[in-house]
Records
---
Amino acid sequence: MYLDLLLVGFGHVARRFVKLLDERASVLHDRHDVRCRIVGVTTARHGAAFDPNGLSTAVLLDRYASGSSIDGTDRDRAGRDYSWLLSEARHHTATACAEGRVVLIETTPLDVTNGGFPAIDHVREALLAGAHVITANKAPVAFGYRDLAARAAAAGRRFFFEGAVMDGIPIFNLVRETLPACEILRFRGVVNATTNFILTAMERGRTYHDALTEMQRAGIAEADASHDEDGWDAAAKTAALINVLMDGDATPLTVAREGIRAITPDRVHDARARGRRIRLVASAQREGGLLLGRVAPEELHPGDPLAQLDGLQNGLLLETDVLGTVGILQLDGGLTQTAYALLSDLITIAKQGTRDRNRGHSLAPSP
Ligand code: HSE
C-alpha cells in the first residue's frame, strides 16, 4: 500500500519520525507492504513545502538544520500555512485522499490555553479532506476526543494518537485490541518524563534547573516547559486516558492539578530518608457517578510499582474489573519512542486499509 504523508509541525518528534521512516523503510515494505512518501510539511518558523511526487527527507532535514525555509527559499512564505497544505493536498492528491491513502501527521505543540485549538481544527479539516490522522499532540484527544472520533467514523477514516501518552508504549492500542471485555475502573500512573527526570535528578543531588535544562536540550520537555512543570502535560494525558479508556468527558481543565515547582531538594531528601519517593502521579477514578482526574506530587511507598520509576521512565497501572490491575512500564523513554508511536499507528492504518480492501469494503466516507 502506498501512503502519502502530510506533516503539520516539524519539531523534534516529527524530525525523528521522518528519520525513523527511512531507517525502517525495508521493514515497512518487506513485512507490511507499506511504502510512504512525505508530500507536504508545514512548520511554525521554517516555512512549508509541498510536492505531490514526494519530498526528500534528507533535504528537508538539511534545510531545517541550516535555518532556512524547508522549501529552499526565503523563510515564512506568507500564506503557506496549514490551510495552504490541505488545499494543495486536496488539489494534487485528490485520488489518494478518496482512496484513503493520505495521512496527516499532527505534531504541533501542546497548548492548553485555547481549548485544544488549532490542533483540533487540523484534525477536523484533514478528516473532511479524506485524510486519516495520527497525532502525538495530546490536545485533540484531551479536549475533543468524542467529537473527533465520531467525525473520523463518519468519514470512514482513522484518528489515532498512541504517541499522546507514554510515547510508543502501547496503551490505547493495548486496551482497544486486547482488553475488549474489561472495564477500566481507575488508573494511576507516572506519565510525564520531564518531571520524573527532574525529581530523580534532585534525589541524586542535581538542581531542578539543571535537570530541566537537560530535558529542554534533549527535546523531551514541552516547547513551553511550564506545561511539564505545572502538570498541564500530565493533566492532558490524564484527560486523554479518561476520555478514551473510561468513556469520560474530561479536559485538562477538569483535572485537579498541582505541578512540581514547590518540590524542594529538602523535601525530596526528607522523603528519601523515610524510604519514600516523590513522584508526579496522574490518576482517575469514579466517585458518585463522576469521573475525577487528578495530577499531584505524591510520596510513594517503596512497594508501589510507580516508586520504582527513575529518570525518563513512565508507568501506568490500570485497575480493571476482570483482570485486576494491569501494569505497563516504559523503562526507556525518549524521542525515538514517541516517533515510533507515529510509525506504529501508520502501520495499523495501512494494515486496516489493506484488510478493508481485501474484504471489498469501500473506504469512501459515509453519506
Ligand atoms: N513533555 C513530555 C514529557 C513529552 O516530558 O513526558 C512526552 O509527552
---
Amino acid sequence: MTSKNESLFARAQRSTPGGVNSPVRAFRSVGGTPRFITRAEGPYFWDADGKRYIDYIGSWGPAIVGHAHPEVVKAVQAAAALGLSFGAPTEGEIVMAEEICRLIPSLEQVRLVSSGTEAAMSALRLSRGATGRDKIIKFEGCYHGHADSLLVKAGSGMLTFGNPTSAGVPEDFAKHTLVLDYNEPQQLEDVFRNMGEQIACVIVEPVAGNMNLLPATPEFLQTMRRLCTKHGAVLIFDEVMSGFRVALGGAQSLYGITPDMTVLGKVIGGGLPVAAFGGRADLMKFLAPLGPVYQAGTLSGNPVAVAAGLSTLKLIQEEGFYASLAKQTARLVQGLSAAAKDCGVAFCANSVGGMFGLYFAKDIPASHSEMMACDKSRFNAFFHAMLDAGVYLAPSAFEAGFVSSQHDDAIIDMTIEAARKSFAAIA
Ligand code: KE4
C-alpha cells in the first residue's frame, strides 16, 4: 500500500524540482522517500502517515527551544494579529538589533535580512566595497549559502583560484574565490604572503557544520585573525549555524576571537525567516543608505518573524540553558558511542554545545579529507534503521545534528536505545 509520504512525494515532484524546496530534504544522499511533516511539538514531529519521530534536525538549527514552544507561538500570533508586514521600520527591529549586538559584542551594528544566504552574500559585498578588493578566501567543506561567489570549490592547486561547484556560476565569478583547506593555517600564511593586499575578506564557519561537525583549531582561527589584521582583510565569521547554538555568544565567545563581521541566521528567527550580518561600525557605514554598498529586502526585519526571534532569544537566556543543552548533547554522543562499541561498529561522535556530529570512522575526523573518508554507506544504513525506529537524523553523512532544550533524559535514552538496535542491525 503506498504511504501518504510516497504519494505526496510523487505529487510534489510534478510541481517542484526534486519535489522539495531545498535539495538536502529530498533524501538523495541517503535514498528512500522523504517524510512530509504535518506537525511538530517539543522534540517531536509527525509525518503524513502519522508516524512520530524524535527530531534531531530542528529545522537545521532554529528549533533550539523545541517545536511549537507555547511562548514563541503566542508571540507570533500576537504579532500576526497586528499585520504581517509593513515595508516600513518597526520598534521590534530595533529591539532585535540591540539584543543581537548586546549578546555578541563584536557587533557594533547589524542589518536584518531573511536568510543566511542573503546575510553572507551581503557581508561579502560589504567587505569588497569597504576594501576596494575583489578576492575572497573560503574553505573546502564550509557552506555559506548559495550566492555565486560562494559556490566554488578548490582550484587545481591551493594557490590557484577556484572553479564553480554549481552550473550557472560564471568562471569570472569563481576566479575571485580562493578555496583553502580547513584547519590548515600554513596555507593562509602562504596565500597572504603572496597576495595579502588583494584579499577583501576571509569567510569561515568557526565551528563547521556543513561537512558534518568539524570545529576549527584555535591556531587556525588565531592565524586568520592575525593575517587579516596585518593585511587589512575583513575576517567574517559565518555563525548562521553556530551562533546561539554552541554558546550564547556563539563560537567567537568560545574561541575568544573577535571577527570584523559576523553572519547570523536560524536561531535568531526561531523558525521564521530572520538572518543578520553586522560588525565594526566603520565597515557598516559603507552600507546603503549611508554608503555606496547596496543591499535591500522587502521582508527584512519582518515584524512576525522578529517576534518569533525575540521570543526565542529570551528563552535561550534563561539560567542554565546552555549548560543543560551541552550536557544533554554530550550525553547523547556518549550514549551512541557506547552503544556502537558494544556492537563492534566503527563509530565515533562529537559535540559542541547543542550541535553534534556522527562519524562512521575509527577516530573523529580533524579535516575535510578525513571527513570524506567516513563510511557513507554505513551511515545511510544507520540513518534508515533509526528512521524506522522513530528517530530522524540529518539525511546526509555530511550534516550536523541539533538538540533542543526539550530533548530531556527520557528522549535521549529512547534515542540511545533505538541506536543500540540500529547498530546491531548494521553490524
Ligand atoms: P540559509 O540561506 O539556508 O538560511 O543559510 C545558508 C547558510 C549559511 N551559512 C551556514 C553556516 C549555514 O549552515 C547555512 C545553511 N545551512 C543548511 C544546513 N546544512 C541549511 C539547510 C538547507 O540548505 O536546506
